[in-house]
């Protein structure tokens, strides 16, 4: 089965690895990429998305989107993790292509409506483009096949605050809309991405298999790896964004639960995802009023990491 997808992204080193999978995997039909600020500013995100497609020899529409959060002020991009250029500060070739003239939100609406019931939205950055698409045409919830969001944390705790994951923290107001829109949604969060480690050995195979694209992935990985060594004490990187595609193509490697999701939009817990399992009664019904969604809770991390390397080797 082939999956037609739109990939919404803020590339970003781990985004770049996931983009390479989306460009190369024979069971993915990459209809376009939509970009957002997050790991970098949105112009850099668009540049990197165009570049990665060109390095893979693919002509893929790239539509630029959110430059800032819906409500809160934008935090500075994490240049110490992804590099100021989003790809580990390595020298990059020139980009030849241009972005699609449409906004990311318009691109999402047009593409979903053109193929009702077929298109999966895979979002691996702050989700402002999803919120904007919902604003533009709320009825896309009935025509999108599925929404896969890399973000949040059910039991794992946060990576940018004690409780918040970066994509949710970067735009909690957009996340609150996207997670409760009532479309078929799966959240692939830190509970599973922190169980997956792309090792230097995996990366050497990817570099050997991907030509010039492989060089960019490997050299940017080397920069990203320093952060993981210091922050988590591991020799390797968590391939967060590739996990969203791993779930799409190899769901049997994950365990999931069904329930209701919410996001704290302000205060100390800003960006924290709140999960109320289906059927569980709490002291008040308010945590269980949003539409039912699925969340990932467990994963065979070694198998997912090997899958990523196998796809790209
Ligand atoms: C997420 O935040 C970004 O830095 C990564 O690209 C990933 O999408 C992980 O929390
Ligand atoms: Ca990302």
Radius of gyration: 18 Å
User: How many separate domains?
Assistant: 1
**Structural class designation:** alpha/beta
**Shape from CA axes?**
globular
Order of helices and strands: EHEHEHHEHEHHEHHHHEEEH
Indicate the mean pLDDT.
97
The unique ligands bound to this protein are: beta-D-ribofuranose, calcium ion
The first-to-last residue Cα distance is 21 Å
Helix content: 25-40%
Spell out the CATH superfamily. Answer: Ribonucleoside hydrolase-like
| Name of the CATH architecture | Alpha-Beta Complex
Strand content: 15-25%
| Main sheet properties | 9 strands, mixed
SS element count, helices: 12
Ranges with pLDDT <50 over ≥5 residues?
Answer: none
Strand order of the largest sheet: 3-2-1-4-5-6-9-7-8
Number of strands: 9
CATH topology: Inosine-uridine Nucleoside N-ribohydrolase, Chain A
CATH class: Alpha Beta
